[in-house]
């Protein structure tokens, strides 16, 4: 199959942009890439798919996502993190069933695909949500999923006993750590290697030192990567200080710093933390919308970039972002650091596009397969329609993608050589069925949690 007449942002080693470009897909691999005229001449018998007026980019990679939380979109707006978590989100999630978890996964995946995300890292999937259902949803949809199953043994947040988890979410070593290993043995590499299983460790304060050390030992022995929230809010920094550590010295002490680890948020770091982070090769998932909406602070992205830290991008969960659209996340990531630094050249569009593609692939250990459009890599790419009045005119393709496009402009999505979205419509999932099921189940979860009266907002509704 030849996908022709597109503007192609390759994000390859030379960062080439090909005008009137074409991609040849054979099975699940990019077999050739170049000017449309050359590829059409070279492969005259190939079927052609015309992408005139589209910008093609590598499939977007979200390095931080909570698939269960999409069912809870809009249930905890305008709250700071600990109230948001302890009084709303944990209570709601503690009332999930496995069927709810599957419905939430399908809702998340459908939204991600329609907005151009082709691979995601699930941060912390609880046992009660039904990990098999999450993996099945990935398998059925055609998306790539790195699926972090929760690891924990302490049922509170940071150092305050008042910040307790809902009883429905509490897990022990056997359920969380050993359960994660069982899911890795069952699902890792499934669906033509579209599924990878990770450890999704809870934030420090929610895991004992002993369990962290056991997890990181297994991680090294079996090659199971780790993702974990870290230094998101000031309460996290206070926890580290209470055990005579900084965020990164603590992570180092329990074996978490590694090229196989993705640490999420990373807002409250000092200069020594950044040096240690850089020297260890540990990756960071930047979530600017979540950090801004929850008033957690702003990650020191320019400082990390200057130190050589690899930074990916994530939307986080729908209750702290309200969307799984990574294109919208890209715009904020490019703008917010200019604002606080008073430097309009900070974190340019090209850097943000790298975060959402090749940097994300590096963070997930998949940069030899995805993250750029190159011969021999997997055929994962997205065509963005820039023919509309809101997108015209444009002069620089990365700028048009980062500053103008949103997920609603996504026209075609290809993963593993298969078209999963065409003309903006899902091909492997029934969108109407997914939406109706999600509406029904989200209402049931809120009612079971006894929080219906909290969902009305601040203004009266008649």
What report would you give on this structure?
- The chain has 462 residues and is an alpha/beta fold.
- It folds into two domains: 2-58 and 379-426, Roll (Urease, subunit C, domain 1), CATH 2.30.40; 60-363, TIM Barrel.
- It is 38% helix and 23% strand.
- The chain contains 16 helices and 19 strands.
- It has helices spanning 36-42, 81-93, 98-114, 131-141, 173-187, 190-193, 209-222, 234-242, 247-253, 271-280, 288-293, 301-306, 326-341, 349-363, 397-404, 431-449, and strands at residues 2-9, 17-26, 29-35, 48-50, 54-58, 60-65, 117-125, 144-151, 156-157, 160-164, 195-201, 226-230, 261-265, 283-286, 311-313, 381-385, 410-415, 418-422, 425-426.
- Strands 1, 2, 3, 4, 5, 16, 17, 18 and 19 form a nine-stranded mixed sheet that branches. An eight-stranded parallel sheet has the order 6-7-8-11-12-13-14-15. The protein has a two-stranded antiparallel ribbon with strand order 9-10.
- Helix 3 packs parallel to helix 4 (131-141), helix 9 packs parallel to helix 10 (271-280) and helix 14 crosses helix 15 (397-404).
- The longest helix is centred in the C-terminal third of the chain and has 19 residues, at 431-449.
- The termini are far apart.
- 56% of the residues are buried.
- The mean pLDDT is 97.
Would you spell out the secondary-structure blueprint of this structure?
Layout: E1 2-9, E2 17-26, E3 29-35, H1 36-42, E4 48-50, E5 54-58, E6 60-65, H2 81-93, H3 98-114, E7 117-125, H4 131-141, E8 144-151, E9 156-157, E10 160-164, H5 173-187, H6 190-193, E11 195-201, H7 209-222, E12 226-230, H8 234-242, H9 247-253, E13 261-265, H10 271-280, E14 283-286, H11 288-293, H12 301-306, E15 311-313, H13 326-341, H14 349-363, E16 381-385, H15 397-404, E17 410-415, E18 418-422, E19 425-426, H16 431-449
Helix pairs in contact: 3-4, 3-16, 9-10, 13-14, 13-15, 14-15
């Amino acid at each position: 199959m030849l996908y022709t007449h597109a503007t192609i942002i390759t994000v390859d080693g030379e960062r080439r942009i090909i005008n009137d470009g074409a991609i040849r897909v054979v099975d699940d691999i990019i077999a050739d890439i170049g000017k449309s005229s050359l590829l059409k001449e070279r492969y005259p018998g190939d079927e052609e798919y015309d992408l005139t007026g589209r910008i093609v980019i590598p499939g977007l990679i979200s390095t931080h996502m909570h698939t269960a939380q999409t069912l809870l979109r809009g249930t905890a707006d305008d709250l700071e993190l600990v109230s948001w978590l302890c009084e709303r989100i944990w209570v709601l999630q503690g009332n999930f069933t496995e069927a709810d978890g599957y419905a939430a996964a399908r809702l998340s995946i459908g939204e991600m695909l329609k907005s151009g995300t082709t691979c995601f890292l699930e941060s912390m999937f609880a046992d009660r949500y039904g990990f098999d259902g999450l993996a099945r949803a990935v398998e059925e949809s055609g998306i790539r999923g790195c699926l972090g199953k929760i690891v924990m043994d302490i049922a509170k947040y940071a150092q305050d006993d008042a910040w307790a988890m809902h009883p429905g979410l509490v897990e022990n070593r056997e359920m969380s750590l050993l359960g994660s290993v069982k899911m890795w043995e069952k699902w890792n590499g499934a669906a033509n290697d579209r599924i990878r299983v990770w450890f999704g460790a809870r934030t420090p304060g929610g895991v004992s030192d002993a369990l962290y050390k056991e997890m990181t030992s297994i991680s090294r022995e079996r090659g199971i990567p780790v993702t974990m929230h870290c230094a998101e809010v000031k309460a996290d920094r206070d926890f580290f200080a209470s055990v005579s550590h900084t965020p990164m010295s603590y992570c180092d002490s329990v074996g978490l710093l590694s090229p196989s680890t993705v640490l999420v948020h990373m807002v409250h770091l000092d200069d020594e933390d950044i040096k240690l982070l850089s020297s260890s090769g540990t990756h960071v998932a930047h979530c600017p919308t979540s950090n801004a909406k929850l008033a957690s602070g702003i990650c020191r992205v320019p400082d990390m970039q200057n130190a050589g830290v690899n930074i990916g991008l994530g939307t986080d969960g729908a209750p702290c972002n309200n969307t799984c659209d990574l294109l919208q996340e890209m715009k904020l990531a490019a703008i917010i650091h200019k604002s606080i630094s008073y430097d309009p050249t900070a974190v340019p569009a090209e850097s943000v596009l790298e975060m959402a593609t090749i940097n994300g692939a590096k963070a997930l250990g998949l940069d030899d397969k995805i993250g750029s459009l190159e011969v021999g890599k997997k055929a994962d790419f997205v065509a963005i329609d820039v023919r509309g009045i809101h997108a015209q005119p444009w002069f620089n393709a990365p700028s048009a993608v980062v500053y103008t496009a949103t997920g609603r402009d996504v026209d075609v999505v290809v993963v593993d050589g298969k078209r999963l979205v065409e003309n903006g419509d899902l091909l492997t999932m029934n969108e109407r069925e997914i939406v109706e099921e999600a509406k029904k189940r989200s209402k049931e979860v809120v009612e079971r949690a006894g929080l219906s009266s909290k969902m009305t907002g601040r203004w009266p509704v008649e």
